[in-house]
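Researcher: Let's do a round of design. I'm pasting the structure tokens now; please hold your answer until I've finished.
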């Protein structure tokens, strides 16, 4: 890699520079304290692992036409592995669907070096740090949203934002506010934003939804098939 005398890395792409900025963020004291405490204390099942314990950047194809937006990293998922939706049950569900619908080269996402690649899709979270009780504060959401805005600016090919849950739907609307009335979140709800991008809603692949049957594999696959259709409009 070529570095300047100031330590800057000229070989990084703009998206990689943004990733480096994200992983060094300490804007939200409550989230910094929580993510680092979880990384120190660990879950017994992962006691021998080194936790990431930092903000989790987006992951995927920089030429993606589909941008998937979740809520936040899981304390013992992305906060442990350093990759969004990796190492937890929600990620198992999501990547299995992305594999079935042609966006991922494998159905599992276990750790950051497992060979997973995305084609035509990019995944990020509205809040990049694991929050206590999986509930970010509005101020924490607002601190983090510029990162998603910057990602989308650097990915002009992204035509569809798949929102995993109501929190992500609300966050996406704040990125590109439409005139009233405000569109309501729902599974398979879709809305064209002022930018020309489409919002597409999906229930979040949390165990609360997948274990109860509120979200099925076919429902998740339907979301990504519809996203593919909207992406070529």
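Researcher: That's everything. Go ahead.
Model: Designed sequence:
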């Amino acid at each position: 890699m070529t570095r300047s005398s100031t330590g800057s890395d000229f070989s990084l792409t703009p998206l990689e520079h943004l990733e480096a900025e994200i992983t060094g963020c300490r804007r939200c004291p409550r989230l910094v304290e929580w993510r680092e405490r979880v990384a120190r204390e660990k879950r017994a099942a992962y006691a021998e692992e080194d936790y990431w314990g930092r903000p989790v950047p987006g992951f995927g194809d920089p030429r993606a036409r589909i941008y998937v937006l979740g809520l936040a990293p899981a304390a013992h998922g992305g906060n442990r592995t350093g990759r969004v939706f990796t190492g937890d049950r929600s990620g198992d569900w999501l990547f299995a669907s992305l594999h079935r619908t042609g966006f991922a080269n494998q159905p599992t996402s276990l750790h950051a070096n497992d060979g997973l690649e995305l084609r035509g899709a990019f995944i990020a979270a509205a809040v990049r740090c694991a929050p206590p009780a999986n509930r970010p504060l509005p101020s924490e959401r607002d601190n983090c949203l510029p990162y998603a805005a910057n990602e989308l600016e650097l990915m002009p090919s992204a035509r569809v934002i798949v929102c995993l849950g109501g929190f992500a739907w609300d966050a996406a609307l704040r990125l590109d506010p439409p005139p009233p009335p405000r569109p309501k979140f729902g599974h398979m709800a879709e809305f064209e934003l002022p930018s020309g991008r489409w919002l597409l809603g999906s229930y979040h692949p949390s165990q609360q939804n997948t274990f109860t049957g509120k979200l099925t594999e076919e429902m998740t696959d339907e979301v990504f098939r519809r996203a593919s259709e909207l992406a070529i409009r």
